[in-house]
Specification:
By secondary structure, the protein is an alpha/beta fold. The protein contains 9 helices and 5 strands, in the order βαβαααβαβααβαα. Strands 2-3-1-4-5 form a 5-stranded parallel beta sheet, with helices on both faces. Helix 1 crosses helix 9, helix 2 packs across helix 4 and helix 6 crosses helix 7. The longest helix is centred in the C-terminal third of the chain and has 23 residues.
């Protein structure tokens, strides 16, 4: 029996093409695509500025730099008095993810969506990796920087991403045990990688 609504959660290494693959999967399965769009949803749910969510997207530990200061993105005033906490920020985003998932088929990129939606039915969790050489090249081209700067950007970005994911999920970011499928996009290329993932999803949910 075919599955009506499905949820695809995409974890990704920086420079692996996870965003592009996520968009392609959304088109393939007639699903809504959520990446940075989640920041807008979370802002609407919380009443905080979208820019505030954007500044602290997938980062753990930012609150130390904000405590006891005035912030125009939180409406001003002490953050303790506003009832704000880092966990509340995560909760707002999680609420937005669950709300979107309850309304139909979705593709979520990052933001611990695999953990947030762990109790939902018809969920598949995918992790996109790629060789470091490939990822450096992609980041170099996208940001117009040299190889040394690209590697540093990748290492720092992934350290933040892993810290965020590990803290909120209690799992290990990028470890195979956290996902249904892990795949190297540099082996087949973006388009063929997406096709392979789509085939896996259709077979998993008996859509073929």
């Amino acid at each position: 029996m075919a599955t009506t609504n499905i949820i695809i959660n995409v974890g990704r290494q920086l420079g692996s093409g996870g965003h592009d693959i996520g968009r392609m999967l959304a088109l393939d399965f007639n699903a809504k695509y959520y990446d940075r769009e989640l920041l807008n949803l979370a802002a609407k749910e919380s009443g905080f500025s979208e820019k505030f969510f954007e500044q602290h997207d997938e980062k753990k530990g930012f609150l130390r730099t904000l405590l006891n200061v005035q912030s125009p993105h939180v409406g001003g005033g002490n953050l303790y008095r506003s009832g704000f906490s880092q966990e509340r920020l995560f909760q707002f985003q999680s609420d937005a993810i669950r709300k979107a998932a309850s309304e139909g088929s979705c593709v979520f990129v990052g933001r611990c969506a695999d953990y947030v939606l762990r109790d939902f039915k018809n969920v598949v969790n995918v992790f996109i990796t790629a060789s470091m050489e490939h990822r450096i090249e992609q980041v170099m081209n996208k940001n117009n920087i040299d190889a040394i700067s690209a590697r540093k950007l990748i290492e720092q970005g992934e350290a933040r991403r892993a810290q965020y994911y590990n803290y909120y999920t209690g799992k290990k970011w990028g470890h195979a045990s956290s996902y249904d499928l892990c795949i190297d996009s540099s082996a087949l290329g973006i388009q063929q990688t997406e096709k392979l993932i789509a085939e896996f999803i259709r077979k998993k949910f008996k859509m073929v």
